[in-house]
Hints:
Elements: E1 6-12, H1 16-28, E2 34-39, E3 53-56, H2 66-71, E4 77-81, E5 85-87, H3 92-101, E6 110-111, E7 113-116, E8 127-130, E9 151-153, E10 155-156, E11 160-164, H4 180-189, E12 196-198, E13 206-208, H5 222-236
Amino acid sequence: MAQSELTMCLYNYARSEQMHQIISELKKQSCRPKIVIWNNDVTQDFVDDRADWVINSSINAHTGCIGMLWQNASTKYVGSMDDDLHFVDDDILGDVLPVLEGQRHDRKMVGAFGVRLYIGETYRESQHINATKGQGQKDKEGNPRKKRINMEVDLLKGRIMLAKQSASHFLSADYGHNDTDLYVSTTLAGRHRYFHTVAGDFWDRMIDFPIDDKGYCERVDHYERRDAICQAWAASCLPSRKVKVRKRSTKEKLEGD
Length: 257
């Protein structure tokens, strides 16, 4: 793949050491992405000469600047990534880009973490799909799946998302959005359910950094806010046969961020 077909936008907040490691891993990726850093840590500038562009923000804009960054990218593909996740191998992004290119609609995104909203269940109780290493894809009987498959989802979580750059023009360049991943997912999906894709090629090829207390999910009202956004969007969507009532015990319900 030619150099710089992908621009990856990374968001840093008080995790500079992890961000330097992520940049090292991105520089090794076979698809050779451009790297943009949005530093939300107002207490210190972020410096890494390997990045193509570093923005040290005077306010913590969280990930709300995604529209502006994607719209200013000169590459065919764009992506965003948090600072709490890193890669297992050097071909992961190069393997996922053909999945993105093959999406039937130019506004469709692919990612590694998604949510399927089910009738009668809250955001937190819905099906959260997590492609980090050790999770493994399972079939309906709960057995390990031999072949990784792409999975359609309502929402992609902002931990890592990839899109065609042309989709960015449907997004606002304003940085004031809360829960930006939900804003991007629902805006690009419009009124269509199961619009985005968790790519099978992400599965078991990403690792979480050790958990700390700096994550966005630490907000007191985190799940209530996300549930309100999701329920309002789902109520506005077109009817779909794909959407099911899913009954599960409390033990089976998956908690997501």
